[in-house]
Amino acid sequence: MNKLEQLRSMTTVVADTGDIESIRQYRPSDATTNPSLLYKAAQMPQYQPLVQSAIEYGQARGGSEEQRRLLTLDKIAVNFGREILDIVPGRVSTEVDARLSFDTAATVARAEQLIALYREAGVDSARILIKIASTWEGIRAAEVLEKKGIHCNLTLMFSLAQAVGAAEAGATLISPFVGRIMDWYKKAEGVDGYAAAEDPGVKSVTTIYQYLKKFDYATVVMGASFRNIDEIMELAGCDLLTIAPALMEQLQNSEGELPRKLSPEMARAADIERIELDEPRFRWLMNEDAMATEKLAEGIRGFTADTLKLEQLVQEIARQQAA
After folding, report:
1. Alpha-carbon span 278 to 255, nearest angstrom
2. Is 99 exposed, middle or buried, given 0-12, 13-18 or 19+ CB atoms closer than 10 A?
3. pLDDT, tens only, 190-222
4. Is the pLDDT of residue 322 over 80?
5. Catalytic residue positions?
6. Which CATH number covers residue 189?
7. How far is Cα 318 from Cα 323, in angstroms, rounded to an integer?
8. Is the pLDDT confidence value at 55 over 90?
9. Residue 292 in contact with residue 286, Cβ under 8 Å?
10. Which of 5, 48, 169, 204 is positioned for an S-S bond with 143, CB 3.0–4.6 A?
11. How far is CA 7 from the centre of its chain?
12. Other CB atoms closer than 10 Å to residue 274's CB: what's the count?
């Protein structure tokens, strides 16, 4: 077996893309999207019908111009998600507008709108994960949504504090990042790179995985944001890994044995202290972690910028149609 096949034997492989044809090619179990991926996919000619139908949907609804605009964005995400679910057997993650990352009530409302749009499109909500940034407010929104039976994926996660908060809130899944953590440390320490086992992002996800398994949380861990296949191989055995198509191709073309690096049994044997977490403790731990604080804020800004680009693209298409 090539390394992608071996990885699938111990980890659920998730496609990190909005490109439906790439998902079809690599046959992952699940898929994740975000505003950046949707913006790229929405510019591809083959996906224009998905964008067009969302624009028509938003224009046909009542409410203010802003309500129609936001509805159109959510409908684009749902249209892509619906197409993806025709290919993958599992779930798709769809992200709440990053501009709501510090507003619990608004995040809950937009999540419920996304689920309503999926249900209207004939999709069982059990196949949807609502992606929410791992701010304190986002974690609280996930807690509310999970109690309503809406499953959540806490993203832009860079620290154990975020992971523990999400797990205690009952989040279905968390997405701790790898590559972005490595990026920060490379710059901070003035180095070109790290051996896979010493990669700060790999070590962070390993710590999070071990903590959640050690203390028997139901929340599952999905490593994300990879820069190379060495990072992926070092996390073999993690519950899930979301991988860009280019890296899946490299794994598919790689031969040799892929040893398992993470398992619940190894995690339960680890010497780990339990963290007592409330809002003041969460905020203090984040304050003490410059990397996590900076990368969380940067990630929210980045997703917001791509959401605005997608809005502009939609407006331009709508103007061209009206001309």
Report:
1. 46
2. middle
3. 999 999 999 999 999 999 999 999 999 999 999
4. no
5. 131
6. 3.20.20.70
7. 9
8. yes
9. yes
10. 169
11. 19
12. 9
Amino acid at residue number 172 = T
Average pLDDT over residues 282-302: 98
Residue 39: C-alpha distances to residues 76, 94, 95, 299 (Å) = 10, 13, 13, 15
Residue type, 322: A
Domain that holds residue 132: 3-322
pLDDT at 304: 97
Cβ-in-10-Å burial (0-12, 13-18, 19+) of 219 comes to: buried
Give me the residues paired with residue 152 across strands: 130
| Terminal C-alpha separation, the chain | 55
With vertex at residue 86, the alpha carbon angle to CA 85 and CA 90, rounded to the nearest 5 degrees, is 40
Which residues, 6 or more positions from 315, have their beta carbon under 8 angstroms from its beta carbon? Answer: none
User: How do residues 4-34 score in pLDDT, each as one tens digit?
Assistant: 999 999 999 999 999 999 999 999 999 999 9
Alpha helix positions (H), the chain? 3-8, 20-26, 35-42, 48-60, 65-85, 104-120, 136-147, 160-168, 179-189, 200-214, 229-234, 245-252, 264-268, 279-288, 290-322
Helix 48-60 × helix 290-322 angle, to 10°: 80
Whether the Cβ atoms of residue 16 and residue 84 lie closer than 8 Å to each other: no
Counted domains in the chain: 1
For residue 32, give both structure tokens: 């994740």
Answer whether 52's CB lies under 8 Å from 60's CB.
no
Residue 58, Cα to own-chain centre: how many angstroms?
A: 25
Tell me how far apart the alpha carbons of residues 219 and 106 are, in angstroms, rounded to a whole number. Answer: 24
How far apart, in whole angstroms, are the C-alpha atoms of residue 301 and residue 259? 37
Q: DSSP letter at 238?
A: S
